[in-house]
Amino acid sequence: MRAPCRRHGVMPARSPTHDKGPHPTAHSGTRTGTVCPACLIDTGRKHDESCCLAACLVTGLKRLDCPLLDEPGHDCGRDTWTGQIVGERECRELGWYSRPVPNPTGGGFLYEPCAPDDPHATVDLNRLYQQGLWNPERCRWEPLSEPDGPSTT
Asked: What is the pLDDT of residues 79-135, one digit of tens each?
């Protein structure tokens, strides 16, 4: 059963495997550091059960977004805080970045690919979820095919 993030009090976004549009998240952009900004554990320690940044070790998605969460017998496991959200390292390695742009059909923002040196660049987790495959043995995302290079505008 989905629960709100204990620290921030927000519900997680639905899994990108269920939604066709951009994958909104309560925590977008790059967050790195020695302490998890959601559950406040130190690098190298397991995330709290209710941490909204913890990943499912089976799907690679945020644990609270895991599409298997309500399946009988499914165990997301408990991942370790590395100083980065799961998938950020892979986006950097692949050169996959995006930036916010105003939504032409209404309020809010959409994200478009951009170069890593763009002043508004953030890692492009949406692209990773669409063009990547989670490898549970290696606990990392891998491109479905050879990457087509860094994001550009």
From this structure: 999 999 999 999 999 999 999 999 999 889 999 999 999 999 999 999 999 999 999
The span from the CA of 15 to the CA of 125, in Å, is 12
Q: Which residue, of 85, 104, 131, is where some domain finishes?
A: 85
Instruction: Give the helix/strand (H/E) hosting 130.
Output: helix 125-131
Do the Cβ atoms of 36 and 88 come closer than 8 Å?
no
Q: In whole angstroms, give the CA distance from residue 74 to residue 108.
A: 35
| Structural domain containing residue 37 | 28-85
Question: What's the rounded Cα separation, in Å, for the pair 39 and 115?
Answer: 31
Beta strand residue intervals within 3-102, DSSP E: 97-102
Half-sphere exposure for 73 (CA within 13 Å, toward CB):
0
Does some domain include residue 6?
no
Other CB atoms within a 10 A radius of the CB of residue 3 amount to 12
Phi, psi of 43 (to 5 degrees): -55, 140
Both structure tokens of 53: 């940044």
